[in-house]
Structure formats: C-alpha cells, structure tokens
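The instructor's notes for this session suggest beginning with a concrete chain rather than abstract definitions. Hand out the sequence below and ask the class to guess, before any prediction is shown, which regions might be ordered.
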Amino acid sequence: MSKDLRNDERLVFLQANAIKYQKIVPLKVDASSRKYFRIFCDSRKTLVLADDVLKKNKLSEFERLSDFFLKYGVKVPKVYASDLSKGFLLLEDLGDDTFTRLLENGKDEAFLYNLATDALIKVCAINDRPDFIKDLDKSRLINDICFFADWYIPMVKGRPLSIDERQEFVVLVSDLADMAFKVPNKMVLWDYHVDNIMLPKGDEECALIDFQDAMWGPLTYDLMSLLEDARREVSFDVQLQMKQKFFNALKGIKRKDFDDSYAFLSLFRHMRVLGRFTILAYVNGKPQYLKFVPHLWDMLEKTLNYEKFSPLKDWLDHILEPNLRKIPQKKPVTEAMILAAGRGVRMRELTDNLPKPLIKVSDKALIDYNFERVLNVGIKDIVVNLCYHGDLIKNHIKKTYPDLNVRFSIEKEALETGGGIKNALPFFKNDAFFVCNSDVFFEEESLKPAMWLMLDAWDENKFDIMLLLQDMAHICGDKGIGDYRLNNGFAERNKNKESGFDYMFAGIYIIKKSVFNKIKEDKFSSVQLFDEAEKNGRLGFVCNQSTFYHVGTPEALSAAENKLKQK
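After discussion, reveal the predicted structure:
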C-alpha cells in the first residue's frame, strides 16, 4: 500500500470520528510495525493515532485491556475511537516523557523505579483474569528460550546445535522451568521496561503504554523485566530496594520461592532476548538492537551463578566458551539467483501463454513466494534468469519489487539450471550465493525458516554446495521417486532410479562460483555439479521441516490449492 493511500485512510478515520485538526506529526516508532501520530486539534487538545497497517499488533487486545486496567485504577491511555478492520486506534495523549527520556535527562532513578514498582504492585493486586489473554505457561517458556539455541548460538558459533546438543539444552531448561511457578500467576504485562512507561505531566503516578501482549503467568516476571532491562543497567541498590518493596507487598509467599522464580525468569528473558534481538537485527533489518548484546551477556552471566543453575552453566561453558559470547554475525551469503527461464512443459496448456513462475497458488505467483523467502533471509541483491516469456516475468518483478536490486540474465535459449547459473556468474560479487528454483512452494512450518537453517549449517571450508532436501513423506503433489538418501551423514543421489531414497531435492541450494571453474559446457544441469561435490565429499544438506507442495503438473497444482484451502 502506498504511503499516500494510507495517509488518506488515516484522514478518513479522523473525519469519521469528527476530529478537527491543525496538523499531524509522526512520532518515533518502536520495534514493532506500528506507527504513531500526534494529532493537534483545533481545541489545542492533542490525541495520538496508533496506525497498525499490517494489523499484527493486537489492537483489539489493547483496546479491551485499556478498559480493563482503567476499571482497576491502573493508569493507561484511554481509547477514544477505533477501527480495527483498518488498524487504527485513537488514544489519549500522555505526552513524551517516557522513563527512558526522563532518565536521560537526569531524573532520579530511584524515584522513577519506585513509581514503576508501585504500578506493578497495583497490577499484581488484580485477581480478575480477562478471558482473552493466554497463559505464560511452561511450554511457552521452553519455546521462547529456544530463540537463544536456534538463532543466537548458530550465529556466534558458526554452526547450529546438533540434535543431541539442542535436546540437552531443552532438558536442562525444562528441569529448571518449574522454579518460575513457585509463585502465583497474575497478569503479566510481558514488555515492562522504561521505554513502555510514561510520567504524564502533572501526575504523581506513572502510566503503562504497552500491554497488548499481556498474559497470565508468574507474578515475578514484570518486576524482573523492569529491573534487568536489556536496554540499560539499573543500579544494584535500586534493584535490591525494588525487589524488597515488591516482595513486601505480597502475602503468603516464601522469599526462597520468590527468588527462585525471579532467577529462572531472569535466565529465560536474557536468553530469549539474545535470540529475539538477533532476529530483529537480521530478519527485521533493525541492527540497532545488537548494541545491547554485551549488556545482556553481563546480566546472563550473573544469573548463571545462581546455585541451582550450575548444570546449565556447565553445559553453556562447554558449548559456548566465553570468546563466543559476542555480537552475532551473519555469514557472508548476501546474493541469490532465482531460476525462471524454463517453460514448465508438464504444466501443459497452463504455460502456453504464461511462464510457470507466474502461475498462481492461493492468488500469489510462484516466483513471489521465492522472492519473499529470499527477502526473509536478508538478501536484496537478486539475479533472475529469463528466457520463455521473459518480458512477462521482468515486468512483474519490476512492478512488484521496485526497491530491490534485481538484475536479469537473458538467455536466447534455455541453458538448463547449471548453464543458467554459469551464464549469470558475472553478476555475483561473492563466491557463495543462494539459488532457488522459481517454482519452489512450501509454507514455513518449522521454528526457523529453511534458508536460515541452511545459512546456519553452511561452512565454506567444508562444502562447495549445500542442498535443501525434503522428506518424501511430507510432499503434497507429484512425488515420483526420491532423489537422495542419507547415508552416515552424507547425501547420496539416486542415480539408478531405485527405491529406498526417501528425500527429494527441494529446489534451493547454496553454491560456490568456484565449482564452475572446470565446466566447459554452456548448457547443462546443476545435478552434474551436485554429483561432483558428492564425489569429493563436499556436498552438504539440510532437511526441510515443512510440508512441500510439488506443483509440477495441473493436477498437483489443484491438489495444492485444495490442501491449502483445508488448512
């Protein structure tokens, strides 16, 4: 959606709610996709417009929780109007004085943290549970702490955890996680830190401004989130005073249980946030979060000294020695090629006047799924080879992705997959790059997208090519005979069309330019390159963990459409 069109929708929303304004000023955005605007009204009153164009930020929950908290005397912004279908909320304007800004301007830390703790005590006194909020339960803790294992560790270690190593981690944190629930469950605001707390001018009470992700979980969570802030170091004395103040307001809870719960949730949050900030930096394009990694490690290492964490500390010391506890770095695979030159003859009449990459599945062209997959791994330098109805594909890409650096490798006749890549090699600056067949189609169902798993496992010193393989048991569409089997950690191709080969090549791979050095042919299949890498022991693989839709024929396309509708 263009910015101008969205602006028109904002103005229509304000008009529909009889808001007369003099000007509209954008406010600083946070880590989410939300945008905020200050509305200067004719009456000199100001309002805030929350704009969630992607509708991913739980505006309905924010609106309902605002009413809920106000009923219990917790200060939050009032919601004056909403259009959830468009992603708009019109809010009370509480000013600009977040605790972050006040602290930067020299406001007394102890004073502000006392106010923030008072607000938490008030929230903790609420026994009523809204029926729409979810549980912060043990399964959620284990799932989220694995951001650390699945995202942070691979980027600093250079390889993913093995299946056994990851299972060891899950068992260790599962054994410890019950500590979190030694205190009662209450409302957990989830993202309670100084960026999300304000002090409205003239008020003696702070206001909470980010609570739509609230859950029902251990009452120690928000206090820990406040005092062990990923973004700033809270003085030790203030931490002690606020913990004591909060504990004194509780009834019937043993101090040891309180400390155990607080300690595990501290461990959980620091590990989770290390993973989340890695995702924000490299998936969401927000590298500013990486500057907090050293501080997170300082807090995590202190927490790991808690007496009950020694088994996990020993595991971590073995897996991630201190010199690896650093800002994560993405591997230098920053370019991709999408193969789109072929006709797709098995699609019969469907490709008489349309190239296969532009055939739609669920109202989206096949090539668009692969552009999205490449963009998700942070790649914006893309080469597309063209031959059959190449102008149609080029026009579609230029219209759909005007901001990307897309270059086109034109083939007078289709050069097959290997020849097409060889012909496009001058476009690539780096030795290793991704290649995607333009008709690859699957929905990501694993905890981490397939191309990220491939990046984690890629080792340029060990591999020349890395394939994405698909378990034949999880394919919708024309399966045929399997392409590969796994034998003692190696992928072995089915050269004689035998049974017992349980994996299909899933159409995505990382390849090095150097593998083409001895290739004299101009037209050949990339399978020739796969076989050479296999023979030399330099063929890597990652197994896709999602259902694959093999849409090679009209019948397979119809089967994919039907299965997607059922889902």
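Then share the key points. The longest strand covers residues 503-512. The chain has a mean pLDDT of 93.
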